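User: For my dataset I need records formatted as: sequence, then structure tokens, nothing else. Please produce one.
Assistant:
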Amino acid sequence: MKRKIKWLILPLVVLFSACQLFLGQEPDTSPSEILKSLWTDFNNIHANLDFRMSNSLKFESWYDVYNNKSIGYALKVYSGMSEGELFEKCADMLEELKDPHVGLYAPGQSSRSYNAGISEFFDLDKKVKSYLKENGNSEYKNFTFGVFSLDSNIGYIYISEFINEAPETKGQEWGKAIDNIINDLANTKALVLDVRNNRGGELFVMEYIAARFTSESKDYIKARTKTGPGPNDLSSPLVYTVKSIKKASDNKYGYTKPIVLLTNRSTVSAAEWFTMALRTQSHVTHIGTPTCGAFSARNDRFMINGWVYSISPERVTDMNGKIYEGIGISPYEEIKNTTSQADEQLEYAFEYARKSAGIK
């Protein structure tokens, strides 16, 4: 956001008085207060502290992260430390949450963000193409699609992200290519839908694409936003619905034959919402390994010294109230890749899709 600043020439005493009247006292920007204010903001705003800290090997709670008498972060800052040293300590404290949506940024100086638990990232595109007839098709941004070399009755679609590159338009321009892709695969008998390594993106893009694989509209997620400092100070839930295509003119773009949905630990954020949405559909089977477990929206906020942090202010559950934050969504069948030479997850998904389609 660009701000236009108008300069006023006033006597110093008037300027000082106005600052005191409208702004109050200058904030304390000593290292200890900067760290404390950051910890306090996360205590008040982050919606999933208890779930994140339950996996910690060092600290019992977010309170313990700051106040532990022997290793708490309040002990790790001191007057006179450099700005770089303070930045590292603040970043280290946030890293205790192991939340990929949390980051810390010093504009114009340095930045740090976290991808805790994202451990299965590999060159999926190159590996997958070797299984597809003529190496598949990548003419549409963020999609790779085609049919399998071993059986052209089984289609394949990979979606790398749901990011909207023109947020001011609120459109799904690149995502609309899914309609053409489904039309190209209309003669297949089953589909492997791959969102491994998908880093997430915009909800409206994700829901547009998810609708193409939905035979029945279903509520799939409830999300509540943090409203106060208590762990359960949360708003009323917003319920999200994945909607099937109803218009007759759009039916040709839907794919509701058997689908195998493939995920791994690098399936993050909006890709996890996508997974939750499609798991409501009876023709979809989820296999692979659990997703990352980062469901909240990501908000950016300023610190008292001008740094910026990102935070997760939402608590997201399935329709039964189950929380997957920090854990991820476990597939119906867990299949791991154990070698670098083959994609065992994809091979299993292919055979499962053939079986689902009744192909012997």
